[in-house]
Write a structure and sequence with these properties.
Layout (H helix, E strand, L loop, with lengths): L1 H16 L12 H18 L2 H9 L4 H8 L4 H12 L2 H47 L12
Helix pairs in contact: 2-4, 2-6
Amino acid sequence: MKKIIILLLSLGVVSCVEKLIEKPDNLIPRDKMIAILKDMAILNAAKATKSNIRILKENGIEPTQHLFEKHDIDSTGFVESDRYYASLPLEYVSMYEEIEALLTKEKNVMDEAKKMKDSLNVIERMRLSKKNDSIKGIPVKISSDQK
């Protein structure tokens, strides 16, 4: 009985370690795959907006094909690589966690750039307002640090 239990446990361990899908010959490296999947997430978000789809169509851009050309891959290589990485659940989750971190970082950079642009627009409007007031003959008080 003890030998049967050990045999079953051994078979269970071996079957868990067995790869479900063999590594494809044209496997896209992990870092490149992360970049592709990140771009694909951005592309899918852009497709959700009708104006973005219209702009892409007007410019004759097929988004998925453009993505494959950008990363110098073909659809078969992408599908095989994606399927291989998906067969390694812990690796796949780790990749998507990296993608999420990259997207969050990019979002934060864009938010900061937007804040900066908004601040510059406010300053420019104030400058134009003061200029227009002085043209209209309204006295404008200029502080010592603006001279």
